[in-house]
From TrEMBL:
Coiled coil: none annotated. Its main location: membrane. GO terms for cellular component: plasma membrane. Pfam families: MatE (PF01554). It comes from Natronorubrum bangense. Residues 476-487 have a biased composition (Acidic residues). GO terms for biological process: monoatomic ion transport. It is a multi-pass membrane protein. It comes from the Archaea. The chain crosses the membrane at residues 49-74, 86-106, 126-146, 158-179, 191-212, 353-372, 393-415, 427-447. One of its GO terms (molecular function) is antiporter activity. InterPro entries: MATE_fam, MATE_MdtK, MdtK-like. This is Multidrug-efflux transporter. Residues 459-487 are annotated as: Disordered.
Length: 487
């Protein structure tokens, strides 16, 4: 990504990530499709679990955002040995953190479900689902660690195949475990989680093999699994804002899901389906954001900040055009899109309103996600974190409280009464739309300031003397895998 025309190289880097994320989204949609054959309560339960499980997964994304930043910048500066060390320390850190989070999640699963508004049969279905998902957290964390290590090195094709393996297994297993096809028992929502657990386990084994092999841009060396406080500290320093960023997004999603749950099962189910459809756009923009992070990181490592900015502009414009085209199709056939997942007329009607209000703003939020990817690739994860806080906790959640509910407050002394608008669940949809539009304006302005263009790796850092740094192209030639390195 440091030389040559930007659009074709960005496309070569981005398309495997886009395809991988779309496959990941496809298996999420498959979960919803098969769960929808159980009951509306099951759909509502999985809908509520999406933001809650994301709350824990966002920690993995925070750690691996630091991995992409460091690996890509070391690759850009031709320091392969330190890139490999970052991979080993990432795996240590993800295993430690995920084990603690899994234990906490299992210990407090019932209060968490009560907190987000799960009631009656929805609570039962959600509990069956989330118990297994928590057990799968270490596998999920390792999955993200493998993908980010390969992405930072520029090998997005192998990262894509990891997703193909995981998503493919999950999609195949879903009906067997959810509906009890063949000799398998009918497990409902728990079956969806069991399929995810098995798929993540297979992908983890494949990821360990790929990194130990070392022909895919970076190598996992057993000696690098010894704790290195310097690298661990850097991963934590860079990753912590991204983790907080993920928590901000997750808590906001939990809050919004809780708001929606107050309006009944039909809006909750529609919300879950709508968010899954919206996740298609997140899949594309998030993947392009990761490709942008790699391109920005490599160019900042190579001391070419102007090219890093050009990569970001190209990626943002292309992504917004693509998402705009998807939105046009959804707005033309909104009822048909919702009917894929459920045949309840109340849920379909609510889902149509969801799409008509929110979908026109998805392209703007896609642009925000790409710009955040550029910030993370630069290692300036604090800027991406602040953007997430603004878009969710300033421009969305408070607006939802004002638009959706009925309340009033009288200001002392002045005697002035301030009342909410009481638009019902539609107010929540409009709060999302407002947040997307305003956060895009803020993100573009912040990007233009150029405060993110400094590298986060030390110029004077030396590689391990026992394994001197080599140019990435030379390593590729030695290992016989030039194509994946060039990409």
């Amino acid at each position: 990504m440091t030389t040559g025309a930007i659009p074709p190289k960005l496309l070569a880097l981005a398309w495997p990530l886009v395809l991988g994320n779309l496959l990941q989204t496809f298996y999420n949609l498959a979960d919803m499709f098969w769960v929808g054959r159980v009951s509306s309560e099951a759909v509502a339960a999985v809908s509520l679990m999406f933001p809650l499980s994301w709350l824990f997964v966002s920690t993995a994304i925070g750690i691996t955002a630091a991995t992409i930043a460091l690996v890509s910048q070391y690759v850009g500066s031709d320091d392969d040995r330190l890139a490999d060390k970052v991979v080993g320390q990432t795996i240590l850190l993800t295993l430690a953190v995920s084990t603690v989070l899994a234990a906490l999640g299992l210990a407090f699963r019932r209060p968490l479900l009560t907190l987000i508004g799960a009631r009656d049969q929805v609570f039962v279905e959600a509990l069956a689902y989330i118990e297994v998902i928590f057990l799968a957290l270490p596998l999920t964390f390792l999955f993200f660690a493998f993908r980010s290590s390969l992405q930072g090195a520029g090998d997005t094709k192998t990262a894509m195949w990891l997703v193909v393996v995981s998503a493919g297994i999950n999609v195949v297993l879903d009906p067997f475990f959810i509906l009890g096809w063949g000799p398998f028992p009918e497990m409902g929502t728990r079956g969806a989680a069991v399929a995810t657990f098995i798929a993540r386990g297979v992908a983890t084994v494949a990821g360990v093999y790929i990194l130990l092999d070392g022909r895919f841009g970076v190598r996992l060396r057993l000696e690098d699994l010894t704790p290195d406080t310097t690298i661990l500290r850097r991963l934590v320093d860079i990753g912590t804002p991204s983790t907080i960023d993920g928590w901000a997004r997750s808590f906001a999603s939990v809050a919004m899901a809780g708001f929606v749950a107050r309006f009944g099962a039909a809006p909750t189910a529609a919300y879950g389906i709508g968010v899954r459809l919206m996740s298609v756009t997140w899949a594309v923009s998030g993947a392009v954001g990761n490709a942008t992070a790699t391109g920005v990181g490599q160019n900042l490592g190579a001391k070419t900040p102007d090219r890093a900015a050009a990569v970001t502009r190209t990626a943002t414009a292309g992504t917004m055009v693509l998402i705009g085209a998807v939105v046009v199709v959804l707005l033309a056939f909104p009822a048909q899109a919702i009917r894929i997942f459920v045949d309840d007329p109340d849920v379909i009607a609510e889902g149509v309103v969801f799409l008509r209000i929110m979908a026109p703003f998805w392209a703007l939020f896609a642009g925000v996600m790409v710009i955040q990817g550029a910030f993370r690739g630069a290692g300036n994860t604090k800027e991406a974190m602040v953007l997430s806080f603004l878009s969710r906790w300033v421009f969305r959640v408070p607006v939802a409280l004002v638009l959706a509910f009925a309340w009033s407050v009288t200001i002392p002394v002045l005697g002035l009464e301030i009342a909410a608008l009481d638009w019902g669940v539609n107010g929540i949809w409009w709060a999302y739309a407002f947040g997307m539009a305003v956060s895009f304006v803020v993100a573009v302005g912040w990007f233009r300031l150029g405060t993110w263009t400094e590298s986060v790796i030390d110029d004077d850092t030396e590689s391990d003397a026992s394994a001197p740094s080599r140019p990435r192209g030379e390593q590729a030639a030695d290992d016989g895998d030039v194509e994946s390195i060039d990409d």
